[in-house]
Amino acid sequence: MDDKRRRVRVQGGWAGPAKGQAAVKPALSARGHPHQGLGQSWMKRESLPPERQFVYKEPAEQVVRRIPDPQVIDKEGVYEISTSPTGVSRICLFPNFIESEEADWIFEQLCQDVPWKQRTGTREGTTYLQPRLTAWYGELPYTYSRITMEPNPQWHPVLSMLKNRIEENTSRTFNSLLCNLYRNDKDGVDWHCDDEPSLGRCPVIASLSLGATRTFEMRKKPPPEENGDYTYMEKVKIPLDHGTLLMMEGATQADWQHRVPKEYHSKEARVNLTFRTVFPEPSGMDAQVT
Fold first, then answer.
1. Could you tell me the pTM of the whole model?
2. What does the alpha-carbon distance between residue 215 and residue 261 come to, in Å, rounded to a whole number?
3. pLDDT tens by residue, 77-101
4. Distance between CA atoms of 95 and 208, rounded to whole angstroms?
5. Which is nearest to 202 in space by CA: 242, 226, 172?
6. What is the DSSP letter of 284?
7. pLDDT in tens, 199-224
């Protein structure tokens, strides 16, 4: 009986080892040789890379960049808004440079008498009508945004008076004037800088506002590593009221852009007069003092 039971168990495949003996289950190779398969199994196990030990590391601190709030300038004064290798960017604000009643009269005269014209600009090969009206005064032509303003030496008497008054109060001289008429809140001018070669190095521009208050916005040009991204650059907002004079000097045109954005609530008309100096030849441009 014992021999039969032992034989059945062995045939069934679950026979255990004899008492005191260790069980060894041979590994079969592809050809069915037990010893060859066992050797390959051990070789594979020995060739495995050692287990990696987990080491906890504190997460690296990330630098969070904050979008700067725009600086609002609405008080009279001289403001140095930046300093760079190009120079100091400086703006001077003079609210009520023209008293309200006189500003009302000047505004009406200019709206009626200046030969306003809506010009066609070009951007990336596409032509468009400028969202404002313009006029030019000066003995030399002026080209910007692929638009050439023809010479117009016949200054309106009111404009000549304003030019003389600004020169007397600022100790600056100007020979040209670009006039802008923003008819309503849908008129504006996009980001740009007045850095045309004919204006010379570090031009001085005197901007006189008449009529409805509009916000004059400025943004600093990004360094090369920002790849043209203005997101984190410094910004300035200046509300330009009726009769306000704004001067832009030094490296302002080289280091900053400015615009008058369209607005989406009712605005009356605004006249902006930008007095500047235009040079006839590039060789004479370094004569301007900053």
1. 0.76
2. 7
3. 999 999 999 999 999 999 999 999 9
4. 10
5. 172
6. G
7. 999 999 999 999 999 999 999 999 99
